[in-house]
Each structure stands twice: as structure tokens, then as C-alpha cells.
Amino acid sequence: MKLDSKTAKLLGINNTELRILSCIEKTALTISQLSIASKIPRTSLYYILPSLTERYLVIKTKDANKIYWKKNSDEQIKFNIQNALDKISNQNESNFTSVISQSSEITFYHGAKNMEQIFEEIASTPVNARWFGIQPGPSIMDLIPKVSIEIITKFNKTVKNKRHIVEGIVHENYLDKMKDILGIKDYKNLLQSFGGRSSDYAKLPADYMKNISSEIYLFNGKIAIANWKDEFAIIIKNPDMFALLMEMFKSTKYLLERYDQNEKIAKKLIDLG
After folding, report:
1. pLDDT tens-digit readout, 73-128
2. What are all long-range contacts of 21-27, with beta carbons under 8 Å and residues at least 24 apart?
3. pTM, whole model, 2 decimals?
4. pLDDT given at position 88
5. Where in the chain is the domain with CATH 3.30.870.10?
6. CA-to-CA separations, 253 to 42, 120, 173, in angstroms, rounded
7. Class for domain 92-272, per CATH?
8. Where in the chain is the domain with CATH 1.10.10.10?
9. The domain 5-78: what is its CATH number?
């Protein structure tokens, strides 16, 4: 890794350290050998080398009772620098967005509270918009305890008020299992918020994706992938990736059996009284 003086300065590497790293770029040297190669006094090297080691720029090895010093690999140095930059970022921030190009970016979310912004993003799509989702049963079972019923019902009401058309691929029996987690009152409120949405659903076979705790949404040219179990999510904006996953969604849905979720919800609400 050849560093110019400006880049080295940004990384906190002074000219003396830069000279040392250059000497041990490819070959491990003892302090005596390094002193000769770099023309830096051994007494100075005794102070400088431990500092470079603590910053993961240099590694120290021992062979035949001799201590050798060598520059760390470029890959490891880059990884350490990136890892340090990630730790510098404010842990209280709700997300971190990396802009790849004018048409592509990716946003990372961590923590269930921050992941709720995915619902806000979907809900912000225009009136009469159509969006798509694949939500296996285990995923929604992980979602329900971590997102308040108020957030979910508010989202569903916004979807209905904006007349969004929802195309979904889900496990049909997840509606029954939610009752085991929610109380009757919250369960009923949730069903009411779901009911009446303009939707076109297909159901996953019971044994398919039965251990998948992630879900995916396609909306407004964006891809949202969320794992509620690990409380981690990403939103990707990339036209080609969106087109690819949209075609995969359509192909999958075409092969599956359709079902009327609104009818099922209406029957359950009648049963609940």
C-alpha cells in the first residue's frame, strides 16, 4: 500500500512512520536491520514501533529468539480503518446511508425502533401506489413483539387511506398464530387495520420458508430487507436490482395459490364478535 503524504497525514501517519512502513512493506526486519534500512536510530525505533503496532499498522513476530517487524497486510489495514470509522459513527443515529452513485444507495438500520422507519418509507409512497412484499410467518412472529400495535395499525390505516394496492406472498396461517402473542383486544384491532386493504395475496406452502425470519418489500423503486429477529435491515435503491427482484417476485407469485385475505379477516372478526 503506497501512501502519499496527504493520505498518510489523514491517517495520522507522520513522515518518519511512513519511511518505516516503506522499509518493512515486503520483508520483516529486526530493529537493527530496520535502523540501517530507514536510517532512523534504534532508540527512536524502540518508541515508534510499539505505537505502530498498537494502531495495527505493524505486526511483531518472533523467530529464533529474534524479534521481527513487518507492515500489516493492506487488506487488514483497510479493514481496521473501516471498522474504526464505523465505530466513530453515532450509535444513536437511526440509520446510515452510503451513496454509491446518482441512482444507487444503501441505507442500514439497526434496532427494532429504527427499523420502524421502513414502514414510514413504504407509507410515504404516492396515493394509489402498488407495492410488493414477501413475509414468511416466522418473520411476522418476530416482528409482533418488537413493534407496538399502534405503529402497525397506523401503518395499515395509512395504506388504506392512500388506497395503496398491496401484492403479498405470505403464510396463510400466521394470522392464527398472532393471536397467541397478542391479547384479544390488540389482535382484533390488528385484524381490523388489515381488513379492507386493496390487496392481492398468494400463500406460501406451510413447509416452505418455515424457518426464514426475514422479509422483503419492493416499493417506489426501492428494496427493503428486514430481519426482525436480529433487528437489522437495509433499504437498497438500485434500478437494476429492483427490476431483478420484481421479476423474481412475479414469477414466484404466479406459481403460488391465491387467497383472499380480506375474506379470511372478515370471518375471523365475526368469530371474535
Report:
1. 888 888 777 767 665 554 445 677 777 788 889 999 989 999 999 999 999 999 99
2. 21/52, 21/57, 21/58, 21/71, 24/58, 24/69, 24/70, 24/71, 25/1, 25/71, 27/70
3. 0.65
4. 58
5. 92-272
6. 70, 25, 17
7. alpha beta
8. 5-78
9. 1.10.10.10
